[in-house]
Specification:
The complex is a heterotrimer of chains A (437), B (70) and C (275). With 437 residues, chain A is mainly beta. Chain A is 3% helix and 56% strand. Chain A is elongated. Chain B contains two helices and no strands. Chain B is elongated, with a radius of gyration of 17 Å. Chain B starts with a helix and ends in a 17-residue tail after the last helix. In chain B, 43% of the residues are buried. In chain C, strand 7 and strand 8 form a beta hairpin. Chain C has one domain: ApbE-like domains (T-fold, Roll). The relative contact order of chain C is 0.15. Classes of the chains: A mainly beta (437), B mainly alpha (70), C alpha+beta (275). At the A-B interface, strand 2, strand 3, strand 4, strand 10 and strand 11 of A face helix 1 and helix 2 of B. Strand 1 of chain A pairs antiparallel with strand 8 of chain C.
Chain lengths: 437, 70, 275
């Protein structure tokens, strides 16, 4: 083969011959790119609550493989590393309190005046999801998928399917989806028999094996293009949970009817609780109905995204969520996005800050602050920009605060002078990078 | 409840036929920042955080969850 | 043009789109009428029926013939506008009707641009020879129509004549023109290409072939032998500044058979090849 290949000059000779033929040159040099096949969306998230409560460092990725004919494979991966402590459910006392750890093989003491926290809360969670999406006919879109996650004491497996159909020149989309999950709770030390006392170290006589729950979700939705700048959506959602819905680690303090202080008990020599605490109990079924509405509005390049959600369930919890985002472009390549979210919920009917020893035991009781009356407020700011390679980067910082109160009628004696529903303050920092291949 | 929703959907469909845009007027709606879920990863993150801190979840899509954090 | 032709326009109004569309259609019909070998009385018809007498051609035809001469040289004689008569013995209909070597040999005697005398503005063909500008004409028409859109100053458009296409400018309301390259079966998309400027042309047609005894004969014929080029890719799509360049590069690559990819790599052009 000759070292100087005449083939190399063909394109150049052809270009000048074409110029002579057409009498003009091309308007602009060719710019053709094959559409990328993979779209990777990755992020690192820090979530931290104040006062040594939950800290989470999380890596997330969402990868989309685009195939021809609008078929898409979506793969999700999340790895969470959780540390910190979470409220055990017991109320504050003037003096120190000693508890048996959930494992049942050690005890720990919380200083007087402090909210009892359980610091064994330390876990790694791995979650995966895969979905396949493809057109069905000229106006339909089908999406089927599965999800699974595993952490030390929990296993989740789920299936989901969704169908969306376009009407009116694709201005109206009606969708319906169904998801079914089966989760197994593998509580540390075994799930306790509900409403039985926290026992001494080494005594696992009230612990049972694993338990599970089934979750069925149905979502029906309509989205509608109103005009060139306005898009709205409304969803109805139904969710039914069946099975073990307790938190196996939450306990209620059994308190004196007059003083409101936790009744004491004599711990065994090997250690054990010095107060009387009963494990919580929730109904084994929960049905939830939700309405979600969202609007996206373009105001000369700035985008307002507002959504409202109302959810009600048969545990008596009603919640309202208002979410507002405003995307404000700074030139072509970057933007700022302030975010506000307001959330409020009413308590579950069986939410109890403590159990009155003078009254008979209720069938259901939980001290979980997440089932109480509270408001949540989120304020955040996101800054996003395009890199030189046309990839997207963004960083957001958000503050989340929860403040609630125990219904006055539930407080007894000394409880009235203590803060039984301390505020939760969390910082959220997320860095995201999106690129295509 | 189901009948009411079915009626609602039908009524909306009928009303919607007169709304919307022609295919060539989708320039704004086609933008990435005008998608209902503009940042799916952020939405999934938020769903997970609020699922583990509040009593209600879902709405936008499925309930999320699948973790022992609640 | 022997294939579906379309123009996509991003016009401000139906009226503006109609106006620009009609200009493009007029130019396309003009080229079709003038250079189609299926029309009687046009310049190609006169050349092909000159029976050994010289024909004087106009400027535009002269430029096309000059261009064909250049390509004949660049391809070492494999790109030949007189090779169309081979169709008398080759019909690529998916059957196993392979012509006899004698029949091919007989037709081959009437093939060869080197046997023609072209000195602008006069062309002299040997009796029995014919020219066919179909291998250049469609790409030329696409470029002429895209230029018509640019000259008219209308909104950006995409001119697509049977898969050979050019854009008159990038679309203003989206990132790029999105072009799907058809796969082996109808309605199956092989790949998607974002085109902001320039042109795409595809050579090869998965449906035009003959097969016998396990051997597949593609429809690209070698004018030197009269037989299909062996080991040619099923299809080649090339991106270039103009549709003419893209089309010629994909055709020249096809004519290289097994060497098609190497040839295109050396030209430093973007291409997509399917074997």
């Amino acid at each position: 083969m000759s070292s100087k290949n005449p083939d190399r000059s063909v394109a150049a000779a052809l270009a000048s011959a074409t110029c002579a033929l057409l009498g003009t040159t091309a308007a602009a040099p060719v710019d053709a790119q094959e559409e990328p096949k993979w779209d990777f969306n990755t992020s690192i998230l820090y979530y931290g609550e104040d006062e040594d409560r939950v800290q989470d460092l999380s890596f997330k990725s969402l990868s989309r493989r685009l195939f021809t004919d609008d078929r898409v494979l979506i793969l999700g991966l999340t790895v969470d590393t959780l540390t910190g402590a979470t409220p055990s459910g017991a109320i504050r006392q003037g003096g120190p309190q000693t508890f048996t750890r959930p494992s049942g093989n050690a005890a720990y003491t919380e200083a007087g005046g402090k909210l009892p926290l359980d610091d064994t809360f330390r876990d790694t969670r791995v979650s995966i999801a895969a979905n396949w999406q493809q057109p069905a006919g000229d106006n339909g879109l089908v999406n089927v998928g599965f999800s699974a996650s595993k952490e030390y004491d929990y296993l989740h497996t789920g299936l989901n399917a969704r169908y969306a159909h376009d009407f009116n020149k694709r201005n109206t989309t009606v969708s319906s989806g169904i998801a079914y999950a089966r989760d197994t709770i593998e509580a540390v030390g075994g799930a306790p028999v509900p409403l039985t006392p926290m026992l001494d170290v080494g005594d696992l006589s009230n612990r049972r094996g694993d338990d599970d729950k089934d979750v069925l979700d149905v979502v029906l939705g309509v989205s509608q293009v109103i005009n060139r700048d306005l898009l709205v959506q409304a969803n109805y959602s139904f969710s039914r949970q069946d099975g073990y819905l307790n938190n196996p680690y939450k306990v209620l303090s059994l308190v004196d009817s007059v003083t409101g202080d936790t009744l004491s008990r004599q711990p065994a020599p090997q250690g054990g609780p010095d107060g009387q605490y009963l494990f919580e109990n929730r109904p084994d079924q929960r049905t939830q109905h939700g309405l979600y509405t969202q609007a996206k509005y373009n105001m000369g390049g700035k985008v307002v995204d507002v959504s409202y959600r109302y959810v009600t369930d048969d545990w008596d919890i009603d919640s309202h969520t208002l979410d507002l985002r405003y995307r404000w472009p700074l030139g072509d390549a970057s933007y700022l996005e302030p975010h506000m979210r307001y959330y409020t919920q009413t308590k579950a009917e069986f939410y109890q800050v403590s159990l009155d020893a003078g009254e008979s035991l209720p069938a259901f009781a939980s001290p979980d602050y997440r089932l109480g009356n509270f408001d949540g407020l989120t304020a955040g700011l996101k800054y996003g920009w395009k890199t030189r390679n046309d990839n997207d980067m963004s960083v957001r910082v958000e503050w989340y605060t929860q403040s609630g109160d125990v219904p006055a009628g539930q407080l007894i004696g000394n409880q009235l002078s203590r803060d039984n529903f301390p505020d939760l303050n969390a910082l959220i920092v997320q860095f995201s990078y999106r690129f295509s291949r | 409840m189901k009948q009411i929703i079915a009626l609602l959907v039908l009524a909306m469909l009928a009303g919607c036929a007169s709304m919307g845009v022609e295919p060539w007027e989708r320039d704004v709606l086609a933008r990435a920042d005008m998608q209902l879920t503009a940042d799916p990863l952020e939405a999934a993150t938020d769903d997970h955080i609020y699922f583990s801190k509040e009593a209600t979840s879902g709405g936008r899509g499925f309930g999320g969850g699948g973790c022992g954090c609640n | 043009m022997g294939s579906p032709c379309e123009v996509l326009l991003e016009a401000e109004s139906r009226h503006a789109a109609g106006e620009a569309g009609e200009l493009v259609a007029a130019e396309a019909w003009r080229i079709e009428d003038k250079f189609s070998r299926y029309r009687n009385g046009n310049i190609v018809h006169r050349i092909n029926h000159a029976a050994g007498t010289p024909v004087v051609v106009d400027d535009e035809t002269a430029r096309l013939l000059d261009f064909a001469t250049t390509l004949f040289g660049l391809s070492d004689g494999r790109f030949d506008i007189t090779s169309g008569v081979l169709r008398e013995v080759w019909t690529f209909d998916g059957s196993d009707r392979i012509p006899s070597p004698d029949a091919v040999e007989a037709v081959l005697a009437r093939v060869g641009w080197a046997k023609a005398t072209w000195e602008a503005p006069e062309l002299l063909l040997q009796p029995g020879m014919e020219i066919d500008l179909g291998g250049i004409g469609k790409e030329y028409a696409v470029d002429r129509c895209a230029a018509t859109l640019r000259e008219h100053g209308s909104a950006p458009g995409l001119v697509n004549f049977g898969g050979d296409l050019a854009v008159s400018g990038p679309p203003s309301r989206r990132d790029a023109w999105r072009v799907a390259i058809e796969g082996q079966q109808d309605d199956q998309v092989d790949r998607l290409i974002d085109l902001r400027a320039g042109a795409l042309a595809t050579s090869g047609d998965a449906r035009r072939y003959l097969a016998r005894g396990g051997v597949r004969y593609g429809h690209i014929l070698d004018p030197a032998t009269g037989w299909p080029i062996p080991d040619a890719p099923r299809s080649i799509t090339v991106a270039a500044n103009t549709c003419t360049e893209a089309g010629m590069l994909s055709t020249l690559a096809m004519l290289r058979g097994a060497e098609a990819e190497r040839f295109l790599d050396e030209q430093s052009v973007r291409y997509w090849c399917r074997r």
